[in-house]
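Sample 1 of the test manifest.
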Amino acid sequence: MMENGRYHRQIILNGFGKAAQAKLSEAKVLVIGAGGLGCPALQYLAAAGIGYLGIIDGDHIELSNLHRQILYSTAEIGMQKSVVAAKKLTELNPEIEIVAHPFDIDKQNVLEIISDYDIVLDGSDNFKTRYLVNDATAQLKKPLIFAAVSGFEGQLAIFNLADNNGTATNYRDLFPIPPSVGEIPNCEENGVLGVLPGIIGTMAAAECIKLVTGIGKPLTNTLLHYNLLTNEQYAIEISPGTDYTFDDLNTSQPNFMEIGAEELDQFIANPSAILIDVREVNEVPQLNSKLYQKIPMSGFDTYLTTEIEQKNIILICQHGIRSVAAAEALLDKYGNTKNIYSLKGGIVKWRNYFTAHE
Amino acid sequence: MEIEIISFGKIAEFLQNQELQLEGIVDTEQLREHLENKFPRLSSMKYKLAVNKKLVQVNTLINNNDSVAIMPPFSGG
């Protein structure tokens, strides 16, 4: 397998050689999220010869993904990301095994999926997944490569890996509890230049290759900040915190459901349901105020102190991200006593539906 | 005393990198309070401090010419 020249240029590197290449071919790596960070990370990991490469992502390809999610083409809009990614990566390197998990990682499946892999690379796009993946990998003591972006900046770190002193840290040592609803915007709300996750995702792949092969000095217990505009890097030494707990995983927890416009229809003008638009007051298109109650995210904490009478609560926003945050907040309050729904993809995804039902 | 403030992500939008003159502030708890008074948006955010590139987990003394980083969590991908 290694004799065919595919890996020749890296095998001849000083300090790498056939031994390092053999380690790559034996490694099992899971990439969470086949988006802006996941695409470049997957491409370089597949090309480098990681022997068993998993991709988990339940999303479909959208036009607005293509400026940064460079595994996908315009003709593939609407297709499953993990499936398309697996096909493209197999074309790139048919000598490795590539596994697509075409669904979201959640509390019920996280431990089972992660336990098949040696290393996890988190390129997801939301705090819910990031804390879930952190807690699962920390409890399984699996090395976690953390990569994230905000604006023109990136963060990169390696967790759950003991340094020379035997100290291992995780994301909760940095940020013990997740930010509250709407506190930190994501790429959809804040924007992102495509090349930034390209850089950070590629750096994450490099950290993964360093970990597997044992070359260089990986970012163990180190948080690296990268600024695209200035090219500045700033590395911080992470020490263990004390005051946090991990979430219980693999237990059957109450949950909310993500629905499409077809399922939304049954709740319109239905007295058992309240439809809540959590966008800020100035966001367009405006929805019919007789059907949709406007409770902006900025005031949602206050709203949570009031009681909702209806049994079915449907949350709606522009892209289906803030509505998930609102659904989680309501889930914390009501548990299984209400049916809570979030419109997946938001008003942008179902624009035709909202135009037709004005 | 004078310290250097280095901020990241959303925090950098309202609290730019700067040299900060401090009077009567000796540790990171007092600095946190001072910054949250001066920049109220900070008080509603999760963030972590690092003094001279070391993460602050317990109240830490600050000395003249220290550099203090202020970091929010990033989640984008």
